[in-house]
Design a protein that fits this description.
Blueprint (H helix, E strand, L loop, with lengths): L1 H24 L18 E7 L6 H9 L8 E8 L5 H7 L3 E5 L7 H13 L7 E6 L3 E2 L3 H10 L4 E8 L6 H23 L11 E4 H7 L8 H11 L5 E10 L5 H33 L2 H10 L1 H21 L14 H21 L5 H6 L3 H17 L17 H9 L1
Parallel strand pairs: 1-2, 1-4, 2-3, 6-8
Antiparallel strand pairs: 4-7, 5-8, 6-7
Helix pairs in contact: 6-12, 8-9, 8-10, 9-10, 9-14, 11-14
Length: 414
């Protein structure tokens, strides 16, 4: 009876979370197109985190030179973090500033950013805001103009739209693309429309300089973006999502590389959840803040994935080895039609997101047959991450896909 009660209670929680997210996703169906534009007045320090990125950093340097924003209002600083290749030389060839950092003990993007910010504060010129990209990225020409608009309208932390520059390279890059189109439209835009806090995605981010100086960076976990999101919301600063400021990110081509990257994400996610979930949840209750509750729920999502995996595995083992079901299961008491609708609605959201985002990549639609493999693979990855979450060793994702902005635009229009 005790096991049944616990099992049913956990299932009820999972149903609540699923229904909660589905309802929220509905607010992303509509996109407001009218927005206020401001004269270019904000100055930007554009930081690029790089570790042995000689193959792709040149394309980004060319891209940043061509942004549709006054050149005197932004400077590019590439953090050459523990590089052993020619990344710094390539950056200097393009007339950008290569900032070399060597620290074998404190490795990883979070530490590199913290070091770079301290170096920036020492410079004679101080910028209004800091923008962060990864070395494999490409930014849309209007990226800084959009950041300027948001800063002038009062935003202090901004997340751009993270798109995929190579969705047709393999079935796994297609899966990433589908996931990100869904996240941008039905997670980020829905919360933006409701004036909730958006979460940072690791690249295409903008921070008001004054805020960074007040709060400090302080985000050195394996998921520095999520950690800073939690810290800023705790301090009453809600990151804003800019749908029109797009940055194109290179996704891993192989399943092995993808698994390694996602394992690092989940390990870091467990760390952040342990540190911030309960304080943020308590704040949300004390302040009656739906915004903080929503972010606390997002932070603990890694445990929800783990719980779903363990409960599903338990039910399968029960049926396979013990002639089950012997454990209480609320789904068994639901009408078949209701279960079909619930499953169909979850699947449909991905197709709806692709339709809303006007995805035209033919190969992506062909690769859809493999998308369930990508989704299911999150379960064993999260399970393994739970037992290795104290592994703080940062792992580098190699980037080799060299594309120019015009090629990305042409591929989207094909």
């Amino acid at each position: 009876m005790v096991i049944d009660t616990i099992f049913v209670a956990m299932q009820v929680i999972l149903v609540f979370v699923g229904l909660y997210q589905f309802i929220f996703s509905l607010f992303g169906l509509h996109r407001k197109k009218k927005k206020e534009h401001f004269k270019a007045t904000k100055s930007f320090a554009v930081l690029v985190a790089a570790h042995n990125e000689e193959q792709v950093v040149g394309a980004l340097m060319e891209n940043l030179k061509s942004l549709d924003y006054p050149k005197e209002l932004y400077d590019v600083f590439v953090i050459c973090d523990n590089c052993t290749d020619s990344t710094a030389a390539i950056v200097r060839e393009h007339g950008m500033q290569a900032c070399v950092r060597t620290n074998k003990n404190l490795r990883g993007k979070g530490y590199a950013i913290e070091w770079m910010l301290k170096e920036l504060w020492k410079l004679p010129r101080q910028y209004d805001a800091i923008v962060m990209f990864d070395a494999d990225n490409l930014a849309a020409p209007n990226f800084l103009s959009e950041m300027n608009d948001d800063l002038n309208s009062g935003a202090r932390v901004i997340q751009g739209y993270i798109d995929t520059k190579n969705p047709e390279d393999s079935w796994i890059t297609a899966a990433y693309g589908i996931s990100y189109w869904y996240i941008n439209r039905l997670w980020q835009l829905s919360r933006h429309n409701m004036k909730m806090a958006n979460f940072l995605g690791g690249t295409g981010m903008c921070f008001e300089t004054k805020l960074l100086k007040e709060m400090g960076w302080g985000a050195t976990s394996l998921v520095e973006d999520l950690e800073f999101t939690m810290r800023s919301v705790q301090n009453g600063v809600y990151p804003r999502f800019n749908y029109d400021a797009k940055v194109f990110d290179e996704k891993p081509i192989t399943f092995k590389a993808s698994s390694r990257q996602r394992l690092r994400w989940m390990q870091g996610h467990f760390t952040v959840a342990r540190k911030y979930f309960f304080p943020l949840l308590w704040q949300s209750i004390k302040e009656r803040s739906l915004v903080k509750f929503d972010l606390a729920l997002y932070g603990v999502n890694v445990y929800i994935v783990l719980l779903t995996f363990l409960m599903t595995a338990t039910m399968w083992v029960d049926m396979a080895l013990f002639n089950g079901p012997n454990i209480a299961n609320i789904y068994g008491y639901m009408p078949i039609w209701l279960s079909v609708i619930a499953v169909s609605a979850n699947i449909l959201t991905f197709f709806v997101a692709m339709a809303l985002e006007k995805v035209t990549f033919k190969k992506v639609y062909l690769y859809l047959i493999f998308f369930p493999i990508y989704l299911i693979s999150w379960y064993p990855i999260t399970f393994y991450a739970f037992f290795t979450q104290n592994n703080k060793q940062w792992s580098h994702t190699e980037h080799t896909r060299v594309l120019r902005m015009e090629e990305v635009v042409q591929s989207k229009q094909a």
